Structures are given as C-alpha cells and as structure tokens.
C-alpha cells in the first residue's frame, strides 16, 4: 500500500492521466502540478 503522494506519482507515470506527452515524457513542472492538484482529491 502506498501513501497518496506516491499513489499520485505512480498514477501519472503509469499513464492514468492526460499529462504524459505522446513520447511518454513528463517534466518536473508537470509532475509538481499534477501531484499538487491530485493529492487533495484522493482519500487518505
């Protein structure tokens, strides 16, 4: 079981969001933005 921070990162990197570009890269700024918006939405 992962914490919500790790869960959000894994969710992003596994392609379960529309943040990844076509070449499957994500910038640190995209990661930061996604985690900041996604973590509050997840149940603890």
- Strand tally is 0
- Give a quick account of the main beta sheet: strands, pairing sense, barrel closure: none
Number of distinct helices: 2
Helix content: 40-55%
Low-confidence stretches: none
Protein architecture, described:
- By secondary structure, the protein is mostly helical.
- It has one domain (4-41).
- It is 48% helix and 0% strand.
- The chain is built from two helices and no strands.
- The protein has helices at residues 4-13, 28-38.
- The radius of gyration is 10 Å and the shape is globular.
- The N and C termini lie close together (12 Å).
In short, what is this structure?
With 44 residues, this protein is mainly alpha-helical. The protein is built from 2 helices and no strands.
Secondary structure elements and pairings:
Elements: H1 4-13, H2 28-38
Notable features of this structure?
mainly alpha, single chain, 44 residues, 2 helices
